[in-house]
Design brief:
By secondary structure, the protein is α+β, with helices and mostly antiparallel strands. It has one domain: Transposase IS200-like (Alpha-Beta Plaits), CATH 3.30.70.1290. The chain has 5 helices and 4 strands. Strands 2-3-1-4 form a 4-stranded antiparallel sheet, with helices on both faces. Strand 2 and strand 3 form a beta hairpin. The chain starts with 5 loop residues before the first strand and ends in an 8-residue tail after the last helix. The mean pLDDT is 88. This is IS200/IS605 family transposase. Pfam families: Y1_Tnp (PF01797). One of its GO terms (molecular function) is DNA binding. InterPro entries: Transposase_17, Transposase_17_sf.
Protein backbone atom coordinates (compact mmCIF):
# COMPACT_ATOMS: atom_id res chain seq x y z
CA UNK A 1 0.00 0.00 0.00
CA UNK A 2 1.48 3.38 -0.96
CA UNK A 3 2.18 6.04 1.63
CA UNK A 4 1.53 9.60 0.51
CA UNK A 5 1.70 12.74 2.59
CA UNK A 6 1.03 15.80 0.45
CA UNK A 7 -0.50 18.91 1.97
CA UNK A 8 -2.19 21.52 -0.20
CA UNK A 9 -3.32 24.95 0.97
CA UNK A 10 -6.38 25.90 -1.07
CA UNK A 11 -7.83 29.40 -1.20
CA UNK A 12 -10.92 30.41 -3.14
CA UNK A 13 -13.31 33.30 -3.15
CA UNK A 14 -17.03 33.81 -3.39
CA UNK A 15 -18.33 34.88 -6.81
CA UNK A 16 -17.50 38.56 -7.37
CA UNK A 17 -16.02 38.50 -3.87
CA UNK A 18 -19.47 39.05 -2.45
CA UNK A 19 -19.57 38.80 1.37
CA UNK A 20 -22.06 35.92 1.28
CA UNK A 21 -20.57 34.54 4.51
CA UNK A 22 -21.04 37.81 6.37
CA UNK A 23 -21.58 36.39 9.85
CA UNK A 24 -19.47 34.08 11.94
CA UNK A 25 -22.50 31.78 12.25
CA UNK A 26 -22.78 31.41 8.44
CA UNK A 27 -19.05 30.80 8.13
CA UNK A 28 -19.06 28.11 10.81
CA UNK A 29 -21.99 26.34 9.13
CA UNK A 30 -20.12 26.38 5.81
CA UNK A 31 -16.76 25.24 7.26
CA UNK A 32 -18.39 22.46 9.29
CA UNK A 33 -20.33 21.26 6.29
CA UNK A 34 -17.25 21.29 4.05
CA UNK A 35 -15.33 19.26 6.65
CA UNK A 36 -18.16 16.71 7.09
CA UNK A 37 -18.80 16.33 3.37
CA UNK A 38 -15.09 16.03 2.59
CA UNK A 39 -14.76 13.34 5.24
CA UNK A 40 -17.62 11.38 3.64
CA UNK A 41 -15.76 11.56 0.31
CA UNK A 42 -12.45 10.44 1.82
CA UNK A 43 -10.89 13.92 1.64
CA UNK A 44 -8.87 14.80 4.74
CA UNK A 45 -9.42 18.45 5.67
CA UNK A 46 -6.72 19.23 8.18
CA UNK A 47 -7.84 22.82 8.83
CA UNK A 48 -10.47 25.16 7.40
CA UNK A 49 -11.46 28.77 8.01
CA UNK A 50 -11.95 31.96 6.10
CA UNK A 51 -13.79 35.22 6.06
CA UNK A 52 -16.92 36.73 4.53
CA UNK A 53 -15.71 36.40 0.93
CA UNK A 54 -13.23 33.53 0.85
CA UNK A 55 -12.14 30.19 2.26
CA UNK A 56 -8.77 28.70 3.24
CA UNK A 57 -8.57 24.93 3.42
CA UNK A 58 -5.54 22.80 4.27
CA UNK A 59 -5.99 19.34 2.78
CA UNK A 60 -3.86 16.22 2.88
CA UNK A 61 -4.33 14.53 -0.48
CA UNK A 62 -4.95 10.80 -0.64
CA UNK A 63 -3.31 8.35 -3.00
CA UNK A 64 -5.89 8.75 -5.78
CA UNK A 65 -6.87 12.38 -5.24
CA UNK A 66 -5.93 15.21 -7.55
CA UNK A 67 -5.97 18.91 -6.78
CA UNK A 68 -8.59 19.56 -9.44
CA UNK A 69 -10.98 16.80 -8.37
CA UNK A 70 -10.61 17.61 -4.67
CA UNK A 71 -11.41 21.30 -5.05
CA UNK A 72 -14.24 20.52 -7.47
CA UNK A 73 -15.87 18.21 -4.93
CA UNK A 74 -15.45 20.68 -2.08
CA UNK A 75 -16.61 23.82 -3.85
CA UNK A 76 -19.38 22.33 -5.98
CA UNK A 77 -21.09 20.39 -3.25
CA UNK A 78 -20.75 23.14 -0.62
CA UNK A 79 -22.39 25.81 -2.79
CA UNK A 80 -25.19 23.36 -3.70
CA UNK A 81 -25.73 22.55 -0.01
CA UNK A 82 -25.61 26.20 1.07
CA UNK A 83 -28.24 27.20 -1.47
CA UNK A 84 -30.51 24.30 -0.46
CA UNK A 85 -30.30 25.47 3.16
CA UNK A 86 -31.64 28.90 2.11
CA UNK A 87 -29.35 30.60 4.61
CA UNK A 88 -29.22 33.84 2.59
CA UNK A 89 -31.57 35.51 0.12
CA UNK A 90 -29.08 35.63 -2.76
CA UNK A 91 -27.84 32.68 -4.78
CA UNK A 92 -24.54 31.60 -3.23
CA UNK A 93 -21.65 30.88 -5.61
CA UNK A 94 -17.92 30.32 -5.36
CA UNK A 95 -15.76 31.80 -8.09
CA UNK A 96 -14.49 29.31 -10.67
CA UNK A 97 -10.81 29.84 -9.96
CA UNK A 98 -8.80 28.92 -6.89
CA UNK A 99 -5.28 29.03 -5.51
CA UNK A 100 -3.49 25.86 -4.46
CA UNK A 101 0.04 25.60 -3.11
CA UNK A 102 1.90 22.68 -1.58
CA UNK A 103 2.94 22.99 2.05
CA UNK A 104 6.06 21.34 3.43
CA UNK A 105 5.75 19.42 6.66
CA UNK A 106 7.93 21.99 8.43
CA UNK A 107 5.40 24.73 7.59
CA UNK A 108 2.17 22.92 8.51
CA UNK A 109 1.80 24.57 11.93
CA UNK A 110 2.47 28.01 10.48
CA UNK A 111 -0.18 27.50 7.78
CA UNK A 112 -2.68 26.17 10.33
CA UNK A 113 -2.10 29.23 12.50
CA UNK A 114 -2.52 31.55 9.52
CA UNK A 115 -5.79 29.88 8.56
CA UNK A 116 -6.99 29.88 12.17
CA UNK A 117 -6.51 33.65 12.52
CA UNK A 118 -8.49 34.79 9.47
CA UNK A 119 -10.95 36.91 11.48
CA UNK A 120 -8.17 38.93 13.08
CA UNK A 121 -6.08 39.04 9.93
CA UNK A 122 -8.87 40.45 7.78
CA UNK A 123 -9.83 43.07 10.33
CA UNK A 124 -6.60 44.78 9.21
CA UNK A 125 -6.40 43.87 5.53
CA UNK A 126 -9.03 42.86 2.99
CA UNK A 127 -8.78 39.68 0.97
CA UNK A 128 -8.35 41.80 -2.18
CA UNK A 129 -5.42 43.73 -0.66
CA UNK A 130 -3.75 40.52 0.45
CA UNK A 131 -4.36 38.92 -2.92
CA UNK A 132 -2.85 41.89 -4.80
CA UNK A 133 0.21 42.02 -2.51
CA UNK A 134 0.85 38.29 -2.81
CA UNK A 135 0.78 38.24 -6.60
CA UNK A 136 2.90 41.38 -6.83
CA UNK A 137 5.45 40.03 -4.34
CA UNK A 138 5.90 36.70 -6.12
CA UNK A 139 5.34 37.89 -9.67
CA UNK A 140 2.59 35.38 -10.39
CA UNK A 141 -0.06 35.98 -12.98
CA UNK A 142 -3.39 36.59 -11.26
CA UNK A 143 -6.53 34.64 -11.85
CA UNK A 144 -9.52 36.90 -11.71
CA UNK A 145 -12.90 35.74 -12.80
CA UNK A 146 -14.50 37.32 -9.75
Amino acid sequence: MPFIKVYIHFVWSTKNRQPFLATKELRLKMWNHIRENANEKGIFVDFINGYSDHCHCLVSLGVDQTIQKTIQLIKGESSFWFNNQKLILEKFQWQDEYFAVSVSESMIDKVRNYIKNQEEHHSKKTFQEEYDEFFKKYGFQKFDDK
